[in-house]
From TrEMBL:
Coiled coil: none annotated. Residues 6-141, 174-317 form the Sodium/calcium exchanger membrane region domain. This is Sodium:calcium antiporter. The keyword Transcription regulation does not apply. GO terms for molecular function: calcium channel activity; calcium, potassium:sodium antiporter activity. InterPro entries: K/Na/Ca-exchanger, NaCa_Exmemb, NCX_ion-bd_dom_sf. Keywords: Membrane, Transmembrane, Transmembrane helix. It is found in: Membrane. It comes from Neiella marina. Pfam families: Na_Ca_ex. The keyword Transmembrane helix applies. It comes from the Bacteria. Its main location: membrane.
């Protein structure tokens, strides 16, 4: 038990660190070869927050644990909205003014509905995984094209993402950190998944619940840290953009990777309880965002509501496992 717990802690720490180093190195390298900060911000930086989920789900699928992979996707989306955005809103009210963000929220509705369509039958096929991956690259290309087409307009989210691109980093250093990230990221993911699986076996907890809890919360910690840092710098659009963008990427890229590597029949709870929970908290975010559109602010009381929903969901998971 102690060894498994240590593996989870070490795996999470290395996963977050290696993902950060990979993004730092690859973004710096891209800038050094002449790619614009706008393109880097909308691709490498935007995808960086979902790198831990991608690697953990890919590793779990490869190890024959598709429920862990799918649980990580559903749980991460619930955690991003309930815990990350909820906790950040407690710090202060967040302003919403980005043109790109107003496009991404409707996209979140469509992509969440797509997740429901894919998972409602309790299975995830390789064809569905490939479709999700194709949709992911189409989404990424579309967002990038729209951002570049709006270069004459001031978009806070685009500006904030571009500002995150490292500057004055030597090519040699950029290559070094890219290699370090590429090597340690999969190793740390395997350590984490192995430790979490051992804990699940010792406590008789399902792979799905491990994905929904330990892995989902653990892989969402970088988003929480990034959101707190952003709100302290007054980058409100970056906070909401990180959450919405990460959830979009989780459904399309992370779920797509899981289905492509290991198509499988899933735990019935994934297509019921957990899918419904993700859809419900997503539409709660959408509803409040549109209700607050007039004042372009997300209020603090909404943070309390989101945190209450997150805690309630975790309690529901506990009750479900105890009652088995």
């Amino acid at each position: 038990m102690l060894i498994a717990s240590a593996m989870v802690i070490v795996g999470l720490a290395l996963l977050g660190w290696s993902a950060d180093r990979l993004v730092f190195g690859s973004a710096s390298l891209a800038r050094n070869v002449g790619i614009s900060p706008l393109v880097i911000g909308m691709t490498i930086i935007a995808m960086g927050s979902s790198a831990p989920e991608m690697m953990v789900s890919a590793t779990a699928s490869y190890m024959g644990q598709p429920n862990t992979a799918v649980g990580n996707v559903l749980g991460s989306n619930i955690t991003n909205i309930g815990l990350v955005l909820g906790a950040t809103l407690l710090l202060r009210t967040l302003s919403v003014s980005s043109i790109v963000l107003r496009r991404e929220i409707p996209l979140l509705i469509v992509i969440t509905a797509l997740a429901g369509l894919v998972l409602h039958n309790g299975s995830l096929s390789r064809f569905e995984g490939i479709v999700l991956l194709v949709a992911f690259f189409a989404l990424l290309g579309g967002l990038l094209w729209m951002a570049m087409a709006d270069t004459n307009k001031e978009d806070p989210l685009v500006a904030e993402q571009a500002a995150e691109v490292p500057d004055n980093v030597s090519t040699k250093k950029a290559i070094l950190w890219t290699i370090v990230g590429l090597v340690i990221l999969p190793v740390s993911a395997q350590i984490l998944v192995t430790g979490a699986s051992d804990i699940a076996q010792q406590f008789g907890v399902s792979d799905l619940v491990i994905g929904l809890t330990i892995l989902a919360i653990g892989t969402s910690l970088p988003e929480l840290a990034a959101s707190i840092a952003a709100v302290r710098k007054g980058e409100d659009d970056m906070v909401i953009g990180n959450v919405v963008g990460s959830n979009l990427f989780n459904i399309l890229a992370v779920l797509g990777i899981a289905g492509t590597i290991a198509p499988a029949e899933l735990d019935q709870a994934a297509a019921g309880r957990d899918l419904y929970a993700m859809v419900a908290i997503t539409f709660l975010l959408v509803a409040v965002s549109y209700a607050a559109k007039r004042h372009r602010k997300l209020p603090r009381w909404f943070g309390v509501l989101l945190l209450a929903c997150f805690v309630g969901y975790e309690v529901l998971l506990y009750i479900s496992e105890v009652s088995k």
